[in-house]
Each structure stands twice: as structure tokens, then as C-alpha cells.
Design goal:
Length: about 190
């Protein structure tokens, strides 16, 4: 949706979180370590293993340079983005960079916060439950209209989820929804 959908009311509380930070830091570390090894291949002692004897310094520099370039690509692809949510009388507003979306209250029948849980011990088919807001939409096209924000739940029928990084963010959004539309919470 265009950026004009963002809520203009400055007095409404904003719930925000940053995504992609740890992937960015991992790519940065990969870039620095492998980049330094590619630039200075002669530092350290030669290994006694037979594999390192077959690898020329030029090939080693190329390999580590390629890994450093991979780290740079990971950094570029995972620049941390700030996600902002605002809850007001019209609905739940989401903005991240130039993208924004509005989930209007008329589109929903119910909302609930889902707490994270680890997988069940001893059950090989058990998967961890991630923190999310779970929406019960009023119509079947809800997930298509808001595909940048929500994903359908595999076994929950019409319910869709908005995955969030932690339960504190889920709790903040649930409290804001309860302040504005307590009738939707279940």
C-alpha cells in the first residue's frame, strides 16, 4: 500500500521493533574475518595437513575473498528494518521502510496473542511455537490483501498470524488493541 496509509495522529502510542539485526551482524563478522584472511594469506603458520599443502596462496585468497563477498551480500540483504505498529480507532497500522498496511477492524472477527513454547520433549514431530498475533478474519481474502504482513496458519483453518520477534511485542500490541477494541480479543 502507498505510504499515505500510515496513521497521521502523533498522539497515538507506537510499538516498534527492529528486524534482521543478528543476521546483519553475522554477515559483518563473516566479511571482516574472511576479508582479512584473503588480504593477508601469509599470516600464521602453514598447517601440516595434506589439504592445505595442495591449496596455493592464490587459491586460498580467492576462496576467502569469495566467502568475504558472501558475508557482504548477507549484510546487504539483511539491513535491519524498523517495524512500527499503531493501534487506533480505524485499525492496526504497520509501517516498515516504505511499506505500510492497515488492518481495519471491520476485516476481523477476533484477535489473540500467542505465547512462544518450546517443542514437546520426546515428540519428534513437535515444533516450537513462535510468538505471534493470531487474527480470525471476516472473509477469505484477508491473507491475500495483507500478504506482506500476515501468513496463514497451516492447521488453523481461516486464522492467520503476524509473527513477532518476542512475546513483549505481542503483549504490547495486545494491550493496545484491548485499549481500543476489547471486543475483538479472545
Amino acid at each position: 500500500m502507498p505510504e499515505q496509509t500510515w496513521s497521521p495522529d502523533p498522539e497515538t502510542p507506537v510499538v516498534e521493533y527492529r528486524s534482521g539485526r543478528w543476521v546483519f551482524i553475522g554477515g559483518l563478522a563473516m566479511f571482516v574475518v574472511f576479508g582479512l584472511v584473503a588480504l593477508f594469506p601469509d599470516i600464521g603458520h602453514a598447517s601440516g595437513s595434506s589439504k592445505s599443502k595442495n591449496l596455493t596462496p592464490t587459491a586460498a585468497s580467492f576462496l576467502f575473498g569469495a566467502l568475504a563477498l558472501g558475508g557482504l551480500m548477507i549484510m546487504i540483504g539483511s539491513v535491519p528494518r524498523m517495524h512500527r505498529f499503531v493501534v487506533d480507532q480505524r485499525g492496526l497500522w504497520w509501517g516498515a521502510g516504505r511499506k505500510s498496511d492497515l488492518i481495519a477492524w471491520e476485516e476481523l472477527r477476533a484477535v489473540r496473542g500467542r505465547e512462544p513454547r518450546p517443542p514437546v520433549k520426546g515428540d519428534p514431530n513437535s515444533k516450537p511455537v513462535l510468538p505471534a498475533l493470531v487474527f480470525t478474519p471476516a472473509d477469505g481474502r484477508f491473507a491475500t490483501r495483507h500478504s506482506a504482513l500476515v501468513k496463514p496458519l497451516p492447521d488453523a483453518g481461516p486464522d492467520v498470524q503476524l509473527r513477532l520477534p518476542n512475546f513483549a511485542t505481542v503483549r504490547q500490541l495486545t494491550q493496545e488493541i484491548a485499549r481500543v477494541r476489547p471486543d475483538l480479543l479472545r
